[in-house]
TrEMBL record:
Record keywords: Membrane, Transmembrane, Transmembrane helix
Main location: Golgi
Species of origin: Rhododendron griersonianum
Entry annotated with the keyword Membrane: yes
NCBIfam families the UniProt entry points to: A_thal_3515 (TIGR01627)
Protein location: Golgi apparatus membrane
GO biological process entries: xylan biosynthetic process
Record protein name field: Polysaccharide biosynthesis domain-containing protein
InterPro entries xref list: IRX15/GXM/AGM
Pfam family, one: IRX15_IRX15L_GXM
Topology of the protein relative to the lipid bilayer: Single-pass membrane protein
GO cellular component terms listed in the entry, alphabetical order: Golgi membrane
Length: 106
């Protein structure tokens, strides 16, 4: 399992069929803060793992910051980005369950 994955959340979080995930934490604006890398990565994996045929809208706030910008485009994928308005970026990620040949990013 990837070191970026959040592994300590309650099982209900991983088992829920999320229609929308908002990434706006943890704090990432100063050096001592943990940042949002794990939250961005985990939200992308949960979206890809939802039941076949479903899509999950993922919103990432503060994409004006380097970590949020780079990690959201890497793990949520430019090809899935629907819109950016100011510091908020919207991705629509389809299920990858049952599609072993589907690339991570389009």
């Amino acid at each position: 399992m990837c070191q970026l994955a959040l592994k300590s959340l309650p099982s209900e979080v991983y088992e829920t069929k999320w229609d929308l995930i908002m990434v706006d934490a943890p704090t990432g604006y100063h050096e001592e803060a943990p940042g949002r890398m794990s939250a961005i990565y985990t939200s992308g994996m949960m979206a890809r793992n939802r039941e076949e045929g479903g899509e999950t809208d993922v919103f990432v706030h503060d994409v004006n910051r380097e970590v949020e910008d780079k990690f959201s485009t890497a793990f949520l994928c430019d090809g899935y980005m629907k819109k950016q308005q100011g510091r908020l970026r919207h991705f629509r990620i389809p299920s990858h369950r049952g599609s072993l040949d589907k690339p991570f990013c389009p």
